[in-house]
Design brief:
By secondary structure, the chain is α/β, with parallel strands linked by helices. The chain has 2 domains: 262 residues, TIM Barrel (Alpha-Beta Barrel); 47 residues, no CATH class. The protein has 8 helices and 14 strands. The structure holds iron/sulfur cluster (2 copies). One iron/sulfur cluster (SF4) binds next to strand 13. One iron/sulfur cluster (SF4) binds next to loops.
Length: 315
């Protein structure tokens, strides 16, 4: 499998932390792929310097406007990673033209692990925390709300119980909420009414809401749907029409060469794969297909083409 150009995993491996970790996708995928390392051992990877990679002519391999999800096979705030984190921040700072996404469950550790010059937050960092159920929200939000960040959101994934995130939405701090049911070998159910509540609450406060996936065990109107294919789980989430998007949050990205504020025309253009992105709920928020090699058929088209074709097909 080709490596994901939208992921940057400076370290790999993790330890279970809360209910959302029970069917950790990283453990599942490591086992499925026959990864020789033990998933609970936290180790620095060969990708540590990925955002700084350059071509022979000195140009950065990942252009301005690229997007990296950090540590999607680990957690950025693990104690075991304390000795590497400062270097991670230095790399993020060296690429002020890239949008970095950090997701964590270890919210109590964030504050002590921020870089000294964090201030109100780096412009290019989006912070999300996982809130898989009410207990996680009640524990993590009171801490997260006092942590400065330019961009904040929730990842309500995997949703394993009802959750009320209204106290956070009311503050105006949250600009994006992702939600997904659970896959990766789990039999825990995700109920339509739980998703609908979060969707409705986000709608009321004008907060972008993206329902990524139904998960394997989805219950709607008393009927249980067992959906084994991750692709179909995503399509069914799209078809539910529970996602809504109110405009892309503005990210101030700066040239790593001379520090000027980059204009839209200087960022890598957003193009989408006609064979995959048409029924993807993440489309509006996505920087576009980066042709990672995982799809058999790739036909890249512009944003407007996807909108037009969706209308034509009634999608
Ligand atoms: S924090 Fe994430 S990567 Fe770590 S065990 Fe939990 S689900 Fe897995
Ligand atoms: S819009 Fe396309 S590239 Fe973006 S997440 Fe969806 S399928 Fe992937």
């Amino acid at each position: 499998m080709a490596s994901d150009p939208k992921a940057w995993n400076p370290w790999h491996g993790c330890k279970r932390y809360s209910e959302g970790c029970k069917f950790c996708y990283m453990y599942y995928l490591d086992a499925a792929r026959g990864v020789p390392e033990k998933s609970f051992e936290i180790k620095k990877t060969n990708d540590f310097l990925k955002p700084l990679a350059k071509y022979r002519d000195g140009q950065y391999k990942y252009p301005s406007g690229s997007y990296f999800r950090i540590n999607m096979t680990s957690d950025t705030f693990l104690e075991e990673a304390d000795e590497w984190r400062e270097e991670m921040w230095r790399i993020i700072k060296a690429r002020p033209d890239i949008h970095f996404y950090i997701l964590t469950k270890r919210v109590p550790r964030i504050k002590e692990c921020l870089p000294e010059d964090w201030g109100e937050g780096y412009d290019n960092v989006e912070f999300q925390i996982t809130v898989e159920n009410q207990r996680a929200f009640d524990e993590r939000w009171p801490i997260f709300k006092d942590i400065p960040a330019k961009h904040k959101g929730f990842n309500v994934s995997p949703l394993v119980g009802p959750v009320d995130i209204r106290p956070a939405l009311e503050t105006g701090q949250i600009e994006l909420v992702y939600l997904a049911g659970e896959g990766y070998g789990s039999d825990r159910e995700c109920r339509y009414e739980w998703v609908k509540k979060v969707s409705d609450d986000c709608m009321e406060f004008g907060v972008n809401f993206i329902f990524n996936s139904t998960g394997t065990n989805f219950v709607k109107d008393g009927k249980r749907y067992i959906i084994n294919s991750p692709g179909l789980q995503a399509v069914q989430a799209y078809r539910s029409k529970l996602s809504h998007y109110h405009g892309r949050p503005k990210y101030d990205l700066y040239s790593p060469y001379d520090g000027h504020l980059l204009q839209e025309s200087e960022l890598v253009p957003r193009r989408f794969n006609l064979n995959r992105c048409l029924t993807c709920t993440s489309f509006e928020d996505c920087v576009g297909c980066q042709n990672c090699g995982n799809c058999k058929k790739v036909e890249l088209v512009e944003y407007d083409d996807i909108i037009r074709i969706r209308k034509e097909k009634g999608l």
